[in-house]
Amino acid sequence: MASTHIVAVALVAALTAPALSAAEEAAWAELTERLERAALAGSGQELRAVRIDLLRQLIHPAEQAPGKARVEYAIAYVAWRSANLTDVPGQEQADLLHDAVERLEALVDDDPEDTEARALLGALYGLQIARDPSRGAELGVRASGALGRAEAAAPDNPRVTLLQGISAFHTPVRFGGGLDRAERLLRRSLDSFSREPPDKPWPNWGRYDAHVWLGQTLARQNDASGARAEYDAALSLAPDSGWVKFVLLPALNDADRP
Length: 258
Description:
The structure is a single chain. This protein is mainly alpha-helical. It folds into two domains: 24-153; 155-258, Tetratricopeptide repeat domain (Serine Threonine Protein Phosphatase 5, Tetratricopeptide repeat, Alpha Horseshoe), CATH 1.25.40. Helices cover 76% and strands 0% of the residues. The chain is built from twelve helices and no strands. α6 (115-131) runs parallel beside α8 (158-170) and α7 (136-153) runs antiparallel to α8. The longest helix is centred in the middle third of the chain and has 21 residues, at 90-110.
């Protein structure tokens, strides 16, 4: 009886909590737009600055600040974006990943239905494996479990399918991955993105990434023209992407030379 009362009180509190004002929503949108610009530009310095602002929101929240879960997810997303940047030192990357995993594990414990958090958690486990392959057996099960549960709960969520596709790209066929599976998932992700409004409230990231990873998948399959088309699509979304302009496209050009 007591637990029923507690749940009822929580529901009433959630339903009667004041919504964010237009100004507060605008401030949150501005912060997440800064986050996306930094992510697509690959700027570790700006990602650090955004992370500090996000942490401030947790320490000194405004009266009607964005929900704690939204902020925690954004902090973890910064770690995912920072994990392979050359201007983020290796130990900092490891520390960010550890912190992000702890935050998202707490989020999914509190809300098992948070598929965005669960999928990102699976991706973070995968990045930890890349840093420390000796933990592959332990973290591989966690990664596949988190991504699998997220996909089962939200098969049409483009970010869930995107992260599944990236995981498949890095996973050997004998362990359930491979390029064919990665291509199917990434194309499905792009199809889902075509039905998601670009101005959807954040999190709405991933279109650029789906094109980039599909391009890499096609390049590995020796489909240079297909890969180039995906990289061009990625640049149409993020014209300043140094990764595409200075790494992926030149690699494709080198592969084309006899």
